[in-house]
Structure formats: C-alpha cells, structure tokens
Design a protein that fits this description.
2 domains; Glutaredoxin; Glutathione S-transferase Yfyf (Class Pi), Chain A, domain 2; alpha+beta
Length: 215
C-alpha cells in the first residue's frame, strides 16, 4: 500500500489536471488539490516542483520527487496504488497501443484544437475531424464491443481522450459546428455520454459554458 501525503498542483480548466483527478477517483485515493494560477506569476511551489515545463499537473507524493506530465502521472498512479481497477492494460501490445494513441492526442490532435480556440484557425478544423475518424476506428478495436476503450471499465485512453471532451465541445460551440456526431462517429458519441456520466468523471469535468468563458 502506497503511503505519504498526496497533493496535486492544479488549475481548474486544465484537461491534463482532470486526467490526474479521474485516475485518483478510479483508484479511490484521497488527495489534496492545490490551486495554482498559471496565468499570472507562477508560484514558487510550481517552479520548484516542475522547473522544466513550469505547468500543471504536478503530483507530489510524500517525500518522493514530484511527478510531472499527465500521462506519466496516470501510469505512476496505476503502478503505485493497487486499489480499484487497473488503468493501463497488462498485455504489452495493448498497453503500447493505448500509449501510442494517447501520445497522438497530445502531440497532434489537441494542438490543432488549441489553435482553433486561440487563433480561430479554421484551416485546422479538418484535422480535428480526421482525428475523430481515427479515434472512432480505434475505440472499435480497443473496446472489443464493450463500453470503453479500456473494455468494461474506464482505462488509460478513455481518460486521455475523455479529458479533452470539454475543450472539444467549446470548440464546436464557438465555431457553430458539430464534429462529434452520430452520422460520422456514432461509437464515440455513445462512449462520450458514458464517460462523462461515470462516477469518477462527472464531478471533475467543468461545464462547457464555464470552459467557454475562459477562452
């Protein structure tokens, strides 16, 4: 059993902080949420805990070295706490597959969405649609006909992708379009509803209109 105080440096709108919180909820682990205003002068605690990227989330667990980057934090949580279902697959090939797609979301898909939200770059909208088409096929392969990417339970890729749904909905709302829809991505539409209503998620994800005010 893992011991030691657990703190998460956070900012309310960050989808990456949301990943950490959902992972802890799945594992039934109590933690302290430490708010950090990343838009103003960054706190000494954040700069000391994450001197390389200077961003949230940061997991502080007891006297161990702080853990940074949301995907790494999720793996650390899964490896450290045995309570609750596993977040990552035990099968090496399945684990590699979900890690590949999570990296794709962070390195390719989410930056395209950020450029639309920040700069109104409509030329990148097609990239979002292409990415959703890829994820539609991915969930069919990973879920094997079950409720989530992780099967019967929310897993690593569910959290990685699901945490971005709020930003996707804001992108749709502000640009008067629908990217996640029944005709093109029926499996993802059903999955998104299940994910957002899950007990580990519903109290963590901010309302779409609240996120929209941030942008």
């Amino acid at each position: 059993m893992a011991t030691g105080e657990v703190k998460v440096l956070s900012y309310w709108v960050s989808p990456f902080v949301m990943r950490t919180r959902i992972a802890f909820n799945i594992k039934c682990v109590k933690y302290e949420l430490v708010g950090v205003n990343i838009l103003e002068a960054k706190s000494e605690l954040l700069l000391r805990s994450n001197p390389v990227h200077k961003r949230v989330p940061v997991l502080i667990h007891g006297h161990h070295q702080p853990i940074c980057e949301s995907l790494i934090i999720m793996q650390y949580i899964d490896d450290t706490w045995s309570s609750g279902p596993s977040i990552l697959p035990s099968n090496p090939k399945e684990r590699a597959l979900v890690q590949f797609w999570a990296a794709y979301l962070d390195e390719k898909w989410f930056p395209a969405m950020k450029s639309i939200l920040a700069h109104g770059e409509e030329s990148t909208i097609a990239k979002l649609g292409e990415g959703l088409a890829l994820m539609e096929e991915t969930i069919k392969k990973c879920s094997k006909g079950k409720a989530f990417f992780g099967g019967d339970e929310i897993g690593y890729l569910d959290i990685a992708f699901g945490s971005l749904l709020g930003c996707l909905r804001v992108t749709e709302m502000l640009n008067g379009m629908k990217l996640l829809d029944e005709p093109n991505t029926p499996t993802l539409v059903s999955w998104a509803d299940r994910f957002c209503s899950h007990a580990a998620v519903k109290d963590v994800m901010p309302h779409t209109h609240k996120i929209a005010k941030f942008f």
